Amino acid sequence: MKTERRHIAGIALGLVLFFIDALFFFKSAWFIPLIVISVTVGWSQYWIDFFVELQRQKNLESRFPDFVRYLVGAIRSGMPISKAIAHVSKTDFGDLTPYVKKLANQVEWSIPIHKALLIFAYDTKNAVIKRAIATVIEAEQAGGNIEDVLETVTLSVIDIKKIKDRRKASIHSQVIQSYVIFIVFLVIMIVVQNLVVPYVSSLGAPVAGSATEGIINPIGVSIEKVQLDYSSFPGFISSLIDWFVSLRGIFLMISLIQGFFTGLVIGKLAEGQVFPGLKHSLILMTIAFFVISLAQAV
Question: What's this model's pTM, rounded to 2 decimal places?
Answer without folding.
Answer: 0.65
